[in-house]
Design goal:
Elements: H1 2-17, E1 28-34, E2 38-45, E3 48-55, E4 60-65, H2 67-73, H3 75-81
Antiparallel strand pairs: 1-2, 2-3, 3-4
């Protein structure tokens, strides 16, 4: 009885501590930026980085936005997210949020 309990506990503990495998066709979250009045989730979609924007209550405002769509619909958020990208001239990734 104790052995079964110990094995069950070990399985549960390892499932919480070890990373979960992700299938290739699933979107993978890259970052979640929590701002004063909005939350932006950046994830890797099939065609590159995609964005979802939620309000401060967690209600979804827009989902699956491209970088161009984010810049058009939310220029204030885009200005905060854009400096987080590294390019060929930037030696390291720097993220700024205020």
């Amino acid at each position: 009885m104790f052995c079964k309990l110990a094995v069950t506990f070990a399985i549960l503990a390892s499932s919480m501590l070890l990373p979960v495998a992700v299938r290739a066709d699933e979107d993978v979250t890259i970052a979640r930026l929590v701002m004063r009045d909005r939350t932006v989730v950046i994830y890797q979609g099939k065609g590159g980085a995609r964005y979802s924007v939620k309000d401060k209550d967690g209600d979804l405002l827009h989902a699956d936005l491209s970088e161009v769509e984010l810049a058009e619909k939310y220029p204030d958020i885009y200005d905060q997210v854009r400096p987080a990208y590294a390019d060929g001239e930037t030696p390291s990734l720097m993220m700024m949020a205020w």
